[in-house]
Amino acid sequence: MKNISKILTLVGLLLLGSFVLAQESITLVPYSNEAYGFESLIPEGWTDVGQGTFLRQSSATDPTVIVQQAATASADDVLGSLLPRMGLTEKPDSVGTFSGALEWTLYQIEVDSVNVTVDLALAEADGTAYLIILQTSPDQIDALHESVFLPLLEAFRLIDATAEPDVPYLSEEVTFENGDVTLAGTLTLPPTEGPHPVIVLVSGSGPQDRDETLGGGIAIKPFRLLADALTRAGIAVLRYDDRGVGDSTGDFSTALVSDFATDAEAAINYLLTRDEIDADQIGLLGHSEGGLVAAMLGARNDDLDFIILLAGPGVNGRDLLLLQNQRLMAAEGATQAQIDAQVAFVGALIDNLDDPAAIETLTYEYTLEQLEMLPEEQRAAVGEAETYARQTAQQAAAQYGTGWFASFIGYDPAPDWAQVTIPVLALYGTKDVQVDAEQNAPALEAALKQAGNDDFEIEVIEDANHLFQNAVTGGFSEYATLPAEFTPNLIPTILDWLAEHVEIAG
Predict the structure, then answer these.
(1) Burial letters for 424-456: b for 16+ Cβ neighbours within 10 Å, e otherwise?
(2) From CA 483, how far away is CA 216, in angstroms rounded?
(3) In sequence order, which residues have a C-beta less than 8 Å from that of residue 467 and are 6 or more positions away?
(4) Which of the 8 DSSP states describes residue 470?
(5) Domain-by-domain residue ranges, the chain?
């Protein structure tokens, strides 16, 4: 599951540099970030440390940083996530606005704990928040505000992420209904005469658009790549924005796993109305949490003819999440003591899902303990510890107290998999630290055997992470450093299996 917070992780904020690199004059040069979906400027010669963050490094103690990022969230949510780092408990007053390609709200904040001033600009468009930060020493803020911050705002432009390249197939914008929710997506159709086999793509956790854009500086768009490869091979593909995302209506924040299953069911019902689609060859490809949707529909929907899983869970949410935390922390270099503390904390949170006050207390105490273990400079970088811990605790109570989280933790897909008798292809990665192959593949196999399913294949792809990229550690921090491409084995494995299970229209 893609357990990536909708609030962006701000890398580089309140950094205290330890580098020496002469840099006196400032020249701004064009900068494009396809992962975040914008183009702008950056100061020439500043050091790119990833995730839209650039360090000036003009001296051993230069705190000057530029950050340009985007997140699938509201501007208010993004601002709220930044307040603890700046030692604030309340939203600061705006110091003005700036009208460019976007309408920006401006803030200027003195962070006394580390003696820096932060210029902050926030804008929001189509469910995405955009952020520009200039951090520097108080004596330089005025000059850099004029020479760097304002020119960046002026130059900032969105990249049209929906523009389809020239392709040898048909692409149609479609909508379909699930009760009072309208889901918007793209149906790609091979150029040959149908009817065609079709695959519905169902995304993992978190608000995803039809391309499964992940944000956080992660360049790969898994569903765009899959749709292109499958359609070129003669298979129609329907991919759609999650409810409340992109052009789809509805409220993502209140939806349960079961709601996402009925959304996918609505997609199948829509395809049954299309003459170009072969009603006897409808498949579902579920990535991560989308695999839970596949289990639900595989057990009950007679119109579904085959399933493909990418990192699909085979165990209940509690067991999956506890091992996920172990492997995520190990991939980021945590000690065994730190891992044990994290797993105990997550287990306690799960045990108290019906008690928001207990969640808040547990998180507050745990956050303070973790802050005490940090080096002094890192503790200073998060601002006032009490404020940071309180706000982190409040955010945790809101996040873990949702109906979705309870539905995820409480659902065991095994009984549903034990009723699935249609063909199944399940792929996992050895470097996937979110849905562990050794935990989930055997559980899925056992359930499918219990169903009497004699047509399933489970394969573990070497060095593939949760997004099926070639990885070294598989950790979150690595995602944004990898190219926007799958491991070479993924697409051929899927196409070879499909060649044996569907008939391509000539």
Answers:
(1) bbbbbbebbbbbbbebbbebbbebbeebebeeb
(2) 14
(3) 2, 214, 218, 220, 222, 479, 482
(4) B
(5) 28-158, 170-316+412-499, 318-407
Is 28-158 a CATH 2.60.120.380 domain?
A: no
CB 278 within 8 A of CB 401: no
* 3-state per-residue secondary structure call for 240-300: ECCCCCCCCCCCHHHCCHHHHHHHHHHHHHHHCCCCCEEEEEEEEEEECHHHHHHHHHHHH
> CA 484 to CA 35: how far, in whole Å?
9
Q: Which residues contact 66 (CB under 8 A, 6 or more apart)?
A: 42, 43, 46, 53, 54, 56, 132, 133, 134, 135, 148, 152
Amino acid at 218: I
The pLDDT assigned to 10 comes to: 36
| pLDDT tens string 240-286 | 999 999 899 999 989 999 999 999 999 999 999 999 999 999 999 99
Average pLDDT over the chain reads 90
For the record, the structure tokens of 457 come out as 């294949």
Instruction: Report which listed range, 14-18, 371-375, 468-472, is most confident.
Output: 468-472
**pLDDT tens digit string along 302-349?**
999 999 999 999 999 999 999 999 999 999 899 999 999 999 999 999
- Which residue shows structure tokens 């060859």? 281
The closest alpha carbon to 489, from 413, 430, 437, 449, belongs to 430
Matching fold, domains 28-158 and 170-316+412-499: no
CA distance 389 to 402: 20
- Is 170-316+412-499 in CATH node 3.30.565.10? no
Question: Torsions phi, psi of 242, nearest 5?
Answer: -55, 155
At residue 166, the pLDDT reads 83
Chain CA centroid to CA 326, Å: 19
Residue-wise pLDDT for 135-151, tens only, equals 999 999 999 999 999 99
